[in-house]
What does this fold into?
Amino acid sequence: MNRREWIAGYLFLLPNFIGFLAFTGIPVIIGFIISLTDYTGFGKPNFIGFANYAKMFTDTDFKVALQNNLFYSLTSVCTFAGTDAEPENVRRQRFSDDLFFPESDFYGSGRLCMVADF
It folds into this structure.
């Protein structure tokens, strides 16, 4: 590949990279930096290090929320795995139905979640 093709490739990737930085990369970094302070949105932020994280891990509400999220994540993985368990030709025929009637896939995926041993 010559230099022009490399430049063209990077120019095609540039909008995606800028979008990633603007909407994901920079907000994640700023959120992490703010999490290390006691900033309330007003005034000057005070750096407190990992005290917020220590407080979070000792909070009982956090433990309940974490358990609920783990349960939801594991059951939703089973639900979406169940939708891929159908033969390929059946999925192609039902694709338009799934756009308008998404609940049609929940019946088969529910059986998969009942079989899974959590």
Observations:
- Residues 82 and 109 are 4 Å apart (CA to CA).
- The chain has five helices and no strands.
- Confidence is low (pLDDT under 50) at residues 106-118.
- Helices lie at 3-35, 51-58, 60-83, 88-100, 106-115.
